[in-house]
Amino acid sequence: MEDIDSILEPLRLSVKEQGDVVRELKTQKAPELDIKSAVAELKKRKKALQDKENELVAAEAPFDRVQFEACLKKRFFYGQAFEIYGGVAGLFDYGPVGCMLKNNIIDIWRRHFIMNDDMLEVECTMMTPSKVLEASGHAQRFADLMVKDLTNGDCFRADHLLEAAIEKALTDKSTSEEIKADMRATSPLIEGFSKQELGAKLNQYNVKSPSSGGDISEPMEFNLMFRSEIGPTGAQPAFLRPETAQGIFLNFKRLLDFNNGKLPFAGAQIGHSFRNEIAPRAGLIRCREFQMAEIEHFYDPADASHSSIDSVKELILPFFTKDAQMGGGKLTKCSIGAALKNEVLCNETLAYFIGRTFLFAKAIGIDPARMRFRQHMDNEMAHYAKDCWDLECRTSYGWVECVGCADRSCFDLQCHAEASKVNLQAERTLPQPIEKEVFEAIPVKKFIAKQFKKDTPAVTEAIQSADASDLEKQFENGEKINLAGFEIGKEMIQFKKSIKKFHTESFTPFVIEPSFGIGRLIYACLEHNYDCREKDVERRFFTIPPLVAPYKCSVLPISNKPEFDPFISTISAGLKNFTLAHKVDKSSGSIGKRYARTDEIAVPFGVTVDFHTVKITPATVTLRDRDSLDQIRVPVQDTANLINDMASQRQTWMQVAARYPSQDDWLKENPLE
Amino acid sequence: MEDIDSILEPLRLSVKEQGDVVRELKTQKAPELDIKSAVAELKKRKKALQDKENELVAAEAPFDRVQFEACLKKRFFYGQAFEIYGGVAGLFDYGPVGCMLKNNIIDIWRRHFIMNDDMLEVECTMMTPSKVLEASGHAQRFADLMVKDLTNGDCFRADHLLEAAIEKALTDKSTSEEIKADMRATSPLIEGFSKQELGAKLNQYNVKSPSSGGDISEPMEFNLMFRSEIGPTGAQPAFLRPETAQGIFLNFKRLLDFNNGKLPFAGAQIGHSFRNEIAPRAGLIRCREFQMAEIEHFYDPADASHSSIDSVKELILPFFTKDAQMGGGKLTKCSIGAALKNEVLCNETLAYFIGRTFLFAKAIGIDPARMRFRQHMDNEMAHYAKDCWDLECRTSYGWVECVGCADRSCFDLQCHAEASKVNLQAERTLPQPIEKEVFEAIPVKKFIAKQFKKDTPAVTEAIQSADASDLEKQFENGEKINLAGFEIGKEMIQFKKSIKKFHTESFTPFVIEPSFGIGRLIYACLEHNYDCREKDVERRFFTIPPLVAPYKCSVLPISNKPEFDPFISTISAGLKNFTLAHKVDKSSGSIGKRYARTDEIAVPFGVTVDFHTVKITPATVTLRDRDSLDQIRVPVQDTANLINDMASQRQTWMQVAARYPSQDDWLKENPLE
């Protein structure tokens, strides 16, 4: 990486200089136009830096994505959904190997987060009434800009279309130099363009529809949520949820009760979400239906400390702060403790989750050297976030956001409290009780009971939970008011002002949200573990760690003779006893071929039953390690135990191998007559 | 049950007599009208029998559902979704306890079925293009009949509305005796009514809308699938899947490849499905969004044997055959082996899955005495099924279908092969090779390569996979034809008839589908395990077995003093090491109160840390068994191991208790000074 750094240095400097210019203009309160053009220049320089970095990294570690994807398809890790009907973009089905990998990752996630920190798991519905997503802001703001082909109705993402048109025109000889210069200046700005700016550029360059060559519409907002309706009447419009977070917010009160009213606590949810992408691409990275695992850690904003911060304080992580991004700077590698001290991270709770996220990603086999935590720039934050750090993984698609750790403050609880008129606050004990004047509406039971009989409790409760001043105001217009469907007379309520002592006060909790894209993590895990051996570069395999690997071992008899069967059964039963997924392959291919096949589906260990197994007592088998290719000889009765220890990371291969003879040594000492 | 049987005997006899009448008329080929009226009479008698049985059973074991549901709500097992926005019928959120219970049940399912029988798990998308569900028949036939309130647009299930109207009219003094008689005769027939018959009766009884009192529409079909659209163009209509099965069928070819082309094999899927019920009721039993676990076991119809049938042959199960239902007969209790011999069960594969289903339901705590396997009558089978056996569980809602084991024969694979034009067959080796005349289209490479260059392989493949006779026919109209987007000249194809030797033949596999409704199983498990103790009937608890219980134990310090903390930490760390979910409750309530609270969330074991723990070395704790209320004294260091053994059913409480002193004995011998 040293070389790359030295090449990038001047580009970084150029970003930094321009960043300083922008800052200076802002402090001087320079004219808006001047600032805007300085920012545009800054963006151009940042893009040049980014492009160069991507180019250098790709050149250093070339990755054959076509071959990689062919391997995933051949072994059915996952595949395009509805392929026999021509396929649907952005929808994928997981096959047996992908499914097991995913189940293992989710299982580890549940242990690493939910069990480790006593979180409260919920499972909420995907189908969501519109009013909920109106309250959260998604119905208004969760949209991409698109243009429509006016002749055939095809739709395109406006920014992608403009990018593609510029790319094409730049290689076209007939494009004038003047226009090319304008295009080069425009290109880095596209990501931040407004609807109007995109429309203007599409017009200026006379961009046509790629499918028909015909005219396109002005850019328009397209909401990315799938729309449906609940029930047959048409009166309950609904969306499929775009994130699992909302379900946790809606259940906040129940979870707070479950936790005996105490903060902090975290709700967690693993589930599917949906985004109706205009034109999905990049495989598992941008799907229309995908699985997430989200945590909402609710805490009192007066105390953002975390009781387990010490367990992650020493971790050294690569931070890419927003200042560094503005300054063209490099990653800051420092401990979480130091990042807290330097105010790179704003509070312990956020810091704790960043640390846990790193440990999780490492545990599932993502390469720490290809991870970074990037802070969002102010202009790229989602509508609900106050601060956000993404765990990005470097893949052949560039840096990909796999986890987001967002500080949503009290945005969501406040939105829902306001829209639903339900109190979504928690209580904190005051250091000293305070006295306050209160105005109350006190139900007068005898009058209520006289009229409402068995509905008395409902009426009483309605009066108590209503706002007293509000009720009093309503009576100004007459002797009776309507409350929760009941007609209430003036005599049924007594209004009273008094001084009361309060030992607690209410507040809306803040929330830190670590949000994991399972599909993206799986993709990064697969790419980071795709490998070949020096002596056989054509044969590819996956080095997925045993803890996460779909199958923990293979069981391969060297012959199909019936005397092999009892050994296969014993070993298989032992493995099943530990719930260890394994693959018995009795097919007639050579052992080498069968090893290659198991390598391709990431099986870390191979158990081979050979003629020595059958003939020499006590019975032994060959145990092969995928990553080192080492083979040792172990007793049949130890096999399941050893695999279990290695699959659960209680022992490493090295530790196991040290205790048993190597296959070669053993064979020398145990010849078959 | 003896008493109930003797009361029901005459009713059963009356059903049987009428069943014989219907059979006799059918064999005599009597006029259709005679048969119809005899069948109507049979249905009335069956309904009378069913009603009486339900009444007697409810009287024998009264179940307070209101209290039961209050308990589930209080401890947030699950609750109505979107409650703070008023709630949506048929949508439920699982809270922490329900979620853990569900995760455990799914985990056991995966081990019991997928791992035990080496099934291939897949995870397919829920969003499904319409054409797929048109091919499967769901777009046409997956509907309920509803009527619309013509004044306000409210919708009602036509059959439910008619039932409710009859019930009301029968208690109304103003209804004439003549009409009452007609209504009583109509009531048992409603379930089987056609659209026209329902409409006629609603008209005859002048049924009005319950919400406005206004007129209602004629009954109309309402498709129960949620509708949406993929992408922004409106050109890709879609539904949310109504079952997970279709995803397995669509991936049949990939799974067959994964299994090296061999049958039998089973695909399995655990996932969510959606049904837009018109008016859902009955809680978890009829939801609009629910989780299923489905297996599609593909096999060669020439061989429906199952290699593991012996493992279930001795199981004695309660079968309720369709003949018994026609004859008003009782359950047949017999072994699976006998049921196969007597042709109660039509093949080994179906029989095997019925046996495994029973074992699974028992393992997750459903009461075997409240289970039966009911065979579908011919007129109630889904459009795809040839035979079907439901595992029904008796609950306070009556007998509820929790699992269906359907024989779908080759219906689905054939539908999709036809609609997608993709071959979805498998191959079987012939006992002897056969010779057949074939007509082939052979690509002529030199002409293809000359014109298509790098597309040559694609063109070659397109020619080879097309139907040769079809291609020849197309050339009758000209020298060139269009194939897969390529313009193919006559010279590029050579047509050839020849005799070929075949060692295999193709066939469409048959499928047995065990389909599990997770929510219904959870509901049955909860109801069957809701209990109280004789000496304290007010205090309810759940006897869910340790294997499935959400939390495996509680850890309760008797005091909040800091010297208790190290013991809590040691025990908790030990439990986490085994991934055993547990609940530490340091709250100040009495131990009795805290036990009651853990009883309510089904915690099977309680660990109490008391002053003896702190003061006497080696440290010991009290271990309490929820079901027997027995308490023993065990060393702190044994605790996690013991809980782990009991939670994974390696040891029972009885076995553990036999090895340690009872709490009382131990206290007597170890007084605190």
Automatic annotation (TrEMBL), chains A, B:
- Membrane-crossing ranges are none
Broad EC category = ligase
The answer on whether this UniProt entry bears the keyword Nucleotide-binding reads yes
Report the superkingdom from the record: Eukaryota
Q: Which GO terms describe its biological process?
A: mitochondrial glycyl-tRNA aminoacylation
Segments forming domain WHEP-TRS:
7-63
Which terms are listed as keywords in the entry? Answer: Aminoacyl-tRNA synthetase, ATP-binding, Cytoplasm, Ligase, Nucleotide-binding, Protein biosynthesis, Transferase
Annotated GO molecular function terms are:
ATP binding; glycine-tRNA ligase activity; transferase activity
Q: Which InterPro entries match?
A: aa-tRNA-synt_IIb, aa-tRNA-synth_II, aa-tRNA-synth_II/BPL/LPL, Anticodon-bd, Anticodon-bd_dom_sf, Gly-tRNA_synthase/POLG2, GlyRS-like_core, tRNA-synt_gly
EC number in record: 6.1.1.14
Residues covered by the Aminoacyl-transfer RNA synthetases class-II family profile domain: 162-545
Question: Assembly and interactions?
Answer: Homodimer.
Q: Which family does it belong to?
A: Belongs to the class-II aminoacyl-tRNA synthetase family.
Which PANTHER family does this UniProt record tie to the protein?
GLYCINE--TRNA LIGASE, GLYCYL-TRNA SYNTHETASE/DNA POLYMERASE SUBUNIT GAMMA-2
User: What protein am I looking at?
Assistant: Glycine--tRNA ligase
